[in-house]
């Protein structure tokens, strides 16, 4: 027990603050889940805005996230922000304020957002992503836009594919069925896949 105390006392100030807040808040809210009801405005429980930044999932994924927070925070605080605690606190406050800013992106713009992120991360143009965007737009134009304006269908699905998949809907330019998928269902499916991959 003394070793844990010595390890904890040697942590830099901000890392110690972050790790202790995550452990205390996560354990407290896991042990008393009935207190986790969101009524910060009705009952003036403004601390919930603070505690939401330190609530990690309870389990192995939360432990991994806690370790990563500890590792990278300690690394930042002992290298880039060495003897600059005020700068590190300002950095954390800036990051927290940016996390709370969110906006919706229409699905049709998502490939361009991914392209922008790839360019920002790797600092060069990923030509495979550009080729994918061009190919997708070319298919959409030749299958949907051009036939709608000219009446000439340039891309037709081969008959052998319809024979291979007999229940397929043969597309035409009139009255296409729409499929609405609830995103919560897809998240549940991905959560199940992720859970099974851990087993």
UniProtKB/TrEMBL annotation:
It holds the Pfam family DER1. Keywords: Endoplasmic reticulum, Membrane, Transmembrane, Transmembrane helix. Coiled coil: none annotated. The chain crosses the membrane at residues 12-32, 52-72, 88-107, 119-142. The keyword tRNA processing does not apply. The keyword Transit peptide does not apply. GO terms for biological process: response to stress. Its main location: endoplasmic reticulum. GO terms for cellular component: endoplasmic reticulum membrane. It is found in: Endoplasmic reticulum membrane. It comes from the Eukaryota. It is a multi-pass membrane protein. Belongs to the derlin family. PANTHER family: DER1-LIKE PROTEIN, DERLIN (PTHR11009). May be involved in the degradation of misfolded endoplasmic reticulum (ER) luminal proteins. This is Derlin.
């Amino acid at each position: 027990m003394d070793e844990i105390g010595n390890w904890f006392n040697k942590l830099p100030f901000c890392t110690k603050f972050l790790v202790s807040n995550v452990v205390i808040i996560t354990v407290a809210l896991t042990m008393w889940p009935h207190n986790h009801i969101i009524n910060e405005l009705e009952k003036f429980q403004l601390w919930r805005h603070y505690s939401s930044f330190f609530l990690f999932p309870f389990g192995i994924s939360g432990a991994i996230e806690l370790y990563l927070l500890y590792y990278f925070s300690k690394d930042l605080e002992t290298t880039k922000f060495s003897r600059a605690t005020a700068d590190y606190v300002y950095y954390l406050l800036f990051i927290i304020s940016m996390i709370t800013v969110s906006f919706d992106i229409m699905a049709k713009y998502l490939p361009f957002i991914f392209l922008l992120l790839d360019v920002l991360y790797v600092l060069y143009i990923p030509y495979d992503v550009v080729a994918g965007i061009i190919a997708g737009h070319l298919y959409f134009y030749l299958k949907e836009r051009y036939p709608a304006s000219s009446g000439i269908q340039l891309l037709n699905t081969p008959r052998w594919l319809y024979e291979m998949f007999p229940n397929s809907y043969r597309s035409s330019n009139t009255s296409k069925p729409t499929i609405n998928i609830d995103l919560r269902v897809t998240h549940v499916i991905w959560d199940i896949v992720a859970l099974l991959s851990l087993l």
